[in-house]
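Margin note from the TA: students keep mixing up input and output lines. Inputs are the sequences; the output is the structure of the whole complex. Example:
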Amino acid sequence: MTALVALPILLPLFGAAVSVGVGRWRNLQRLVGLSVLGAVAVLTAVLLARVDDAGVAVVQVGGWDAPVGITLVADRFAVLLLLVSVLTMLAVLVYAIGEPGAEQAHVGFHPLYLILAAGVSASFLTGDLFNLFVAFEVMLMASYALITLGGRPAQVRSGMTYVAISLIASTLFLLALAFVYAATGTVNFADLHGKLADLPPGVRSALAVLLLVVFGIKSAVFPLFFWLPDSYPTAAAPVTAVFAGLLTKIGVYAMIRTQTLLFPPDTWPGDLLLVVAGLTMVIGVLGAVAQNDIRRLLSFHIVSQIGYMVMGLALFTVAGLAAATVFIVHQIVVKTTLFLIAGLIERRTGTGQLGQLSGLARTEPFLAVLFLVAALSLAGIPPLSGFVGKLALVDAGLDARSYAIVAVSLAVGLLTLFSMTKIWSNAFWGAPADHGDRSTDIHAGGRRLMVGSTAALAAFSVAIALWAGPLYGLSERAAGDLIDPTAYVEAVLGP
Amino acid sequence: MTTLLVFAAGVLCACGAYLMLGRQLSRVIIGIGLLGHGVNLLLVLSGGDGGRPAFGGDASPDELDGFADPLPQAFVLTAIVITFGVVAFLLSLAYRSWRLTADDAVEDDLEDRRIARSAGSGGDQ
């Protein structure tokens, strides 16, 4: 059990070191990357089964006991999201290997990708606030290098914004840490759960809002989202896809974790979060409708969909958090799929401008089917995975009598469908445009890898819809643990 | 002493914020550095009043009550290393940007420029 909790972090780090060592042989690097991520996926699946069965698993690194040492905690919520993230990263790695671009041109791609994976695992599994900061930094450091890999002028310009904004968010995080430590003398989540409750309500609210701002920047909620649509679209297609799928969702994960576990119910900022959630949905989708570039359009959708997750948190009920969990799982998969499809379109035609695209349904029918599945899922059309997530959210909203946010979320769903129709009617319908086939530099095997991995992710999103019952059951148990963290605290600190 | 350090942290953060609002990349980076130092100073202060000894020697754990809290210092060391790495990366990006454009200024946002242009052509100037 100890190994199971620690290995998802250690294996990718070790793999990254090996990957640097074999940098001269690209095929060996590929073997290392795929086998490490594959092994982590299997381990996480086993861990999820164990944790769901036997409750929270805790590892005290180095044998130092809880409030002092480094604690790794695996509960249902963290491990479920970790499993989906790792599977998505594995699919994107297969895509990257097929695509002639970042992966082939740079020795650093594989090591950076594995370090990113280690950062993602550590963010999910860490049991204290300071190591959450360190895990974020590990993940961000890899992402800085990945987003500017290639060093084109547009990448440098937007990379600058991305690094500066992330650094300011990290500095604020450090500030919040200093305040939390000065107020309580501990940074361990479980220990803070007890000690923060003893503080005066004013101090508690200030700390809660400061942490909200930090994770709000990371997860791009309104009004802190402006950096995202500028920086994400410039990176290589697989890099954008994995960022879009994972990084903002880890911000949401940290938001949910800290708000529910650290702060007692009377400081939960429910109303504030409901307003933020509604505005994030609306502003994000309006930004998306106005765009003419596929990747920029999809980037604004990332923002819009974050609003739904925050809505689930803002309700602060078991149903709301369970719905948010299902929604995050669905989003990680579907968003990544859509960005990979955008990458395939650009690879095929040489452009992502909607005005220059036409008739892809005729020339690339399979791509059209994949896009249709992912786009309708994003818009929440039954019976796809987005419908399951939105239905659960709407249901939870109605239960909590938050009718305004339910109305907003449904209206935003319509606008989402509209913007997806915009891509569909511009890029896929009409007479085939004369842009020729620019993908001739890819050998057939590479092409099969790219389309195959995208199709696998699309199939994964359909599978989420098919097995929605068990997934919702698991999410509901995870949400129950979040609302009542007694089991978590006892597992870390002892009864 | 602690009060003085709190003010010092405040001044560092204020200078950092001011520099970051500038248009030159080099200023932005120095600003980020200053902000980082301000916050690191605050993190050291979160361990309590200064002036206490850092090492206990052969003292038993019971006698260690009067000693400095080592945890914030470990935090700060980690934070300094991380900030150092990221600032180094930012500097190399800024250098790359200077090589590409021979200019140190932060460019306008593309979207802003497009909106400004369409507003300019649509309205009466």
